[in-house]
Amino acid sequence: MTPDNLQAVLHSTYDALHQLQVIEAEDSSVRDLRLPGDNSAPDVLDWQKSITKHAIKCLECGESFKQLSRRHLQRHELDSKAYRRKYGIPREQPLSAWVATARRRQLAKSIRPWEKAHTAKAKP
Questions:
Q1: Is the pTM of this model over 0.85?
Q2: Lowest mean pLDDT segment, chosen from 13-22, 69-78, 96-105, 114-123
Q3: Please, how many CA atoms are within 13 Å of residue 67, restricted to the half-sphere of its CB?
Q4: For the chain, how long is the longest CA-to-CA vector?
Q5: Is-contact 53 99, C-beta < 8 A?
Q6: What counts of helices (H) and strands (E) characterise the chain?
Q7: pLDDT at residue 27 in the model
Q8: pLDDT at 122
Q9: Cβ atoms of residues 95 and 56 within 8 Å
Q10: Rounded CA gap, 8 and 104, in Å?
Q11: Rounded-to-integer distance, Cα 58 and Cα 49, Å
Q12: Of 3.40.50.410, 3.60.15.10, 1.10.10.1550, 3.40.1080.10, which CATH number belongs to 44-122?
């Protein structure tokens, strides 16, 4: 590769990255999971793509977590109810990765806190 070719490739790469940065800055208020250059209307169900087996991606900042905590959502001046409403997430959908949800469900079934609640109330 000649120096002139290399310089042309570097300029085209820079231009492409700069265009992506401009698009991201213009669209910072609406964060969705579309690819750059995809001019289709944002999908209402994008929240489903943000929840995977091992992580959930915050639709506000794009960071990945095992679960979206109240503390993290407060950084975006939201609570879980407002976050769900903003992105159309059903109330029954946990804001956590599938593995974390399954683990909590398994623990609840083994601990059976609903049975222990009756015995705690009966003791004086």
A1: no
A2: 114-123
A3: 15
A4: 87
A5: yes
A6: 6, 2
A7: 59
A8: 64
A9: yes
A10: 54
A11: 11
A12: 1.10.10.1550
Amino acid at 48: Q
Cα separations (Å) of 109 from 54, 102, 120? 21, 11, 18
Cβ pair 74, 81 in contact under 8 A = no
Residue identified by tokens 């999971």 is 33
Cα gap 41→38, rounded to integer Å: 9
Per DSSP, 51 falls in state: B
Residue 71 near residue 65, CB atoms below 8 Å: no
**Residue of 85, 58, 92 whose CA lies nearest to 72:** 58
